Amino acid sequence: MRQADSTIRGYLYQFNKSILEVLQSNDDEKITLEGVIEDIDIQSPVSLTTIQCKYHEDKKYQISSVAAPILEMLCHYCESAVLGKSITYILYAYFAENTDTVTLKSFSDFLQSTNDKDILTKYFHRIFTVPDAEILRIANKSSKSREDKEKIVAYYKANRDKLVLRVNIVDFWEQFTYVKAEQFDLLQNKIIHEFEAFVDADVAKTLYYPNAFSLVATMSAKSDVDDRIITKANLLDYLGKQKSVLLTKWTLEALDRTQILRDKRNYLRGYFSGNPGIRAFLFSDEFLENNQGLMLPFIMQYVDKYFKKPKLQYPPIFILESNNSALLQNILVGLYNYQKPVNTGLIGNTFIPDCFINNKSCAPDFVCKITQIQNISVPILEQCQVNQLYIIGKTESDFKSESYFVEYLDVSDISTLKYLVGLSLKLEG
């Protein structure tokens, strides 16, 4: 668990560094998150800078701890030098006991003395000339067996003194910089201070910073490189349009979870007070999987609170992303047993949009509408006169429309959802 926590902390730190680089970038620079080369690639019209982030709160600095990321950069430099490309490489690292710089001598000495099997088998054939054709063939294999690795290591140990570098490591070192990074909280505060150039201190801390974090974390997970490119203007324009904190697993992981959820609940209170119109909820497949047995009680509690005055209030709409028909049936049967009729839009086994939209062929006193995502589209939601759509959990679906408000609540448990929508006064967990 300690290793998992450390890994997550490293990702959070990388996201923070990415935000800072965006804020400190020039207007003509583009930043690629989870870059093609390293964690962060900064492209200007005339230069390319690439940054690798390492964050270790409980680990002392050793040259062996930074050798692999430096070797990754050295390998890229070796390949790029052939193409005549000029790139600046930065290793941005934090250790419990850190160093101000990494010297060329310490790195060269490491290459001469290391017996680390991963280092030898992954990098040496890319930076040294290997005259043995069979060893080179094995080294270039994408997947190596234990026997392959043993052959490679034995060869290097026997021939280390004869190996010749394919790359001018002195020239590379002129393009490489080791930066002694800031501690996690100090980096957070630095980012918030940068935002204070655009908004007041409270907005910078409670709105701009968490939403920037959420955006960067979400973009970093995109598979298409073009979807991971951002500029300072893009970031500030996006943040200026947000009215409340976006809830994502990364935001809740990085910040004060209780405070974030409390602020979000207070923001949503305005949407859940009075008799506002028709609300729709889209539950992600993952959320439904985690909360299968709790969906029926949630729907019943929601209906009892927010549809207790049928003459003034409107039945809510519940949409299941899951294609688990058994889950849908259990919910429908449960509601039926409690004498709460539902409009499913189904005639037999066929979904009829007109029945769902205009409430035809269903009980006149139904308490909600329930269906699966394959039956729903933006036009159907618009024709149902939805004015609020809440997307619960992690999903690629957005159903954006100018006709209604969309709120993303990337939470994993139903108790948190109940707290956010006013069904529970106390936040559990």
Question: What can you see in these coordinates?
Answer:
The protein has a 6-stranded mixed beta sheet with strand order 7-4-3-2-1-8. A 6-stranded parallel beta sheet has the order 11-14-10-9-15-16. Helices cover 48% and strands 17% of the residues. The protein is an alpha/beta fold. The protein has a domain at 267-420: 3-Layer(aba) Sandwich (Rossmann fold).
Features:
429 residues, alpha/beta, Rossmann fold, six-stranded mixed beta sheet, six-stranded parallel beta sheet, 18 helices, elongated
Oligomeric state as shown: single chain
The CATH class of the domain at 267-420, by name, is Alpha Beta
As residue ranges, the low-confidence spans are none
**Over the alpha carbons, how many angstroms does the gyration radius reach?**
28 Å
Question: Might you state the CATH topology name of the domain at 267-420?
Answer: Rossmann fold
End-to-end CA span: 18 Å
Going by helix content, strand content and strand pairing, the class is alpha/beta
Question: Beta fraction of the residues?
Answer: 15-25%
| C-alpha geometry | elongated
Mean pLDDT: 92
Roughly how much helix do the residues carry, as a percent range? 40-55%
Tell me what the CATH architecture of the domain at 267-420 is. 3-Layer(aba) Sandwich
**Largest sheet composition:** 6 strands, mixed
Q: Given the structure, what is the number of helices?
A: 18
- How many strands? 16
Query: How do the strands of the widest beta sheet line up side by side?
Result: 7-4-3-2-1-8
Sum this structure up briefly.
It contains 18 helices and 16 strands. A six-stranded mixed sheet has the order 7-4-3-2-1-8. Strands 11-14-10-9-15-16 form a six-stranded parallel sheet. The chain has a two-stranded antiparallel sheet with strand order 5-6. Helix 2 links the parallel strand 3 and strand 4.
